[in-house]
Amino acid sequence: MTVIKQEDLIQSVADALQFISYYHPVDFIRAMREAWEREESPAAKAALTQVLVNSRMCALGKRPICQDTGIVIAFVEVGMDVRWEGTLSVDDMINEGVRRAYAHPDNVLRASVLADPDGARANTRDNTPAVIHYRLVPGDKLHVEVAAKGGGSEAKAKFAMLNPSDSVVDWVLSVVPQMGAGWCPPGILGVGIGGTPEKAMLLAKESMMAPIDIHELKARGPANHLEELRLEIFEKVNALGIGAQGLGGLTTVMDVKVSEYPTHAANKPVAVIPNCSATRHVHFTLDGSGPARFEPPDLAEWPDIAFELGDDVRRVNLDTLTPAEVRTWKSGDTLLLSGRLLTGRDAAHKKLVDLLERGEPLPVDFTNRLIYYVGPVDPVRDEVVGPAGPTTATRMDKFTRAMLERTGLIGMVGKAERGPAAIEAIRDSQAVYMIAVGGAAYLVAKAITGSKLLAFPELGMEAIYEFEVKDMPVTVAVDSTGESVHREGPRIWSAKMAERIGVRTV
Asked: What pLDDT is attached to residue 505?
């Protein structure tokens, strides 16, 4: 009988979470590298370059790949011959590991978990509790898969109760475009079919932990219906042309995983959950001999590339920016921002709009300013700010018109597309929306040379700061005329891919 010591599990969870915060899984690095090598869309290739450069920087600097260091999910298989040595419940052991990992002084991770989700939404400050799933199995070992799942990709999860005769492929193809780019493609789609509603969601989530092997499957050919389904969804989703960061390109998904479970004769529950370009998970086994050990990936796995901008880049001085200059920018333009940049996201926007509604003064002057939708990781050592990638901009859509029309704000920086209401507000105010690359948080942070708290300190990482930035790279996603790169890019690339498919089938 194996004895699992309390401290061994706690330390293993803590070490695993630190490990995945700065190391992509090797299979993911290889898949991302392959996607980068074959990509033909300049905008998508530039985005993939940033993700790969950021990934290598994080591996070297041991800092988070993404500022959203995720909600922790653990799949725990407990051997029936395992005995425990300790005073805590297994839930409490795992949560203590989470607590230690997220407060590690050399690599502080962002605490994003909120208690009372429909009420006060108070941050638990240590990213606990984790979401834990157990399975009792024969044997004398403890197997644990630990993942850290970002909120942007979790927000795009979809579920449906299909009729038994409905097509799973058709349903997936209908919902993936609805996801937009807020899940930071390219990544992995997990699909769960069958069981009950909650079982289908769990199947989809767990399936994403399997190694990326779609190209091996394609080479040998499918052996059963599920493998046929994987290949069909993979080919047809990529044919949508959504591409990296939704900019249009060849690769939207790097793999599709499908798991199934028997279901009621009247039902076909189906769930799809995306994993983003900051995919983070690792497996470990405890056999009573001590805590788990994790082997870093070989740096040779990353391509030897640098993030370089072309000659058509425009340099922008934020401290002298005018509405007239903003109106000269066009959708798809690459800009380098330097100067003072405000920050703020969901909670800050809610407070600002509430002040406007009450006719009270704002704590910050937004006249001719840009705001960056970000919630950075706390800095360590000599950092000005920790990894500081963008958050999903659509969550700010409902505040956009008020901010543009009533504060003097002339532009925003975030992640992924904007919805119709926000685009209309941007067009009506002749403002602009730009994107930074999701999944390149450490790279973006290197452009931040100063940081000053301006308002709402009680919001923690969601407070309003003023960043001093130097050559921060962004792409104009919605220009002052309402032209959106997230509409045009996928449209162009889906047409190109349809043409190629047509040529191959002739």
From this structure: 35
Confidence class of residue 310 from pLDDT cuts 50, 70 and 90?
A: low
The boundaries of the domain holding residue 182 are 151-277
Residue carrying structure tokens 């047509």: 502
First CA to last CA distance, the chain: 63
User: Two tokens at 73?
Assistant: 């999910």
Q: What are phi and psi of 196, to 5 degrees?
A: -125, 175
Considering the domain architecture, whether residues 216 and 355 belong to the same structural domain is answered as no
Q: Which residues of 101-138 are buried (b: 16+ CB within 10 A; e: fewer)?
A: bbbbeebbbbbbbeeeeeeeeebbebbbbbeeeeeeee
Q: Are residues 443 and 324 in the same domain?
A: yes
**Of 225, 260, 277, which one is at a domain's C-terminal end?**
277
Specify the pLDDT at position 501: 67
Cα 392–chain centre separation: 9
Of 318, 493, 474, the closest CA to residue 388 belongs to 474
The pLDDT > 70 percentage for the chain reads 98
Q: Could you tell me the two tokens for 122?
A: 């108070």
Please state, in angstroms and as integers, the Cα–Cα distance from residue 271 to each residue in 106, 199, 209, 327, 494, following that order: 38, 9, 16, 42, 25
- The pLDDT, as a whole number, for residue 506 is 30
% helix, strand, coil for the chain, step of 5: 40, 25, 35
Cα–Cα distance, 298 to 249 (Å, whole number): 29
Q: Helices H, strands E: what count in the chain?
A: 15, 19
Q: How far is CA 81 from CA 4, 91, 93, 308, 466, in A?
A: 11, 19, 19, 55, 56
Confidence of residue 361 (pLDDT cuts 50, 70, 90): very high
> Which positions are catalytic?
349
How far apart (Å, rounded) are the C-alpha atoms in residues 279 and 183?
11
